[in-house]
Amino acid sequence: MAVELTEDERIVLDFHPHWTTLLRSILMLVFIAVAAGAIIFFVPDWDMRTQIRLGVAAAALVVALAFSLVPFLRWFFTRYILTTHRLVIRVGIFSRTGRDIPLNRVNDAQFSHNLIQRLLGSGTLTVESGGENGQLVLRNIPRVETVQRDMYELINEPRAPRPPA
């Protein structure tokens, strides 16, 4: 995904939500595969045994796609990009939504994570900006402390004034 950058802007970080966002989908996929495999294995010896097995396999495939592929695509197409001038958020598979928060409007950026999140390297980033939008809470951010630190450094970095247009 390409983000249009201004002349003096550069990308500092470009990342997806943490992989743990997909944990529920992965567990659901395993459960569906085990359940379908057990049903297929234990189908009684009826005349329609093959058709029942194919039906169970097809139903399991549809359910697996709904509960695993869609969340994966949602994770894959969610991007957070921190540039020298703004925080860019892009979300969506077919229709996309985006939000750009200029760093010069950010009042505060803080992170939090519990013990499990610390062990896995993720957390929640809360960005407070001036204006009508208030706080933005981003969950499951990988290396949340690094993201918050980099954002803080960029916010407080002295910039040369832009020449008048």
Briefly note the structural class of the backbone: alpha+beta
Choose one word for the global shape: elongated
Radius of gyration: 22 Å
Which range best describes the helical content: under 10%, 10-25%, 25-40%, 40-55%, 55-70% or over 70%?
A: 25-40%
Query: What about the largest sheet?
Result: 4 strands, antiparallel
Topology as a string of helices (H) and strands (E): EHHEEEEHEEH
State the end-to-end CA separation: 30 Å
Count every beta strand, where a strand is a DSSP E run of 2 or more residues: 7
**What are the low-pLDDT stretches, counting only 5+ consecutive residues below 50?**
none
- Provide a count of the helices: 4
Binned strand content: 25-35%
Across the major sheet, the strand order is: 1-2-3-4
Q: Overall mean pLDDT score?
A: 91
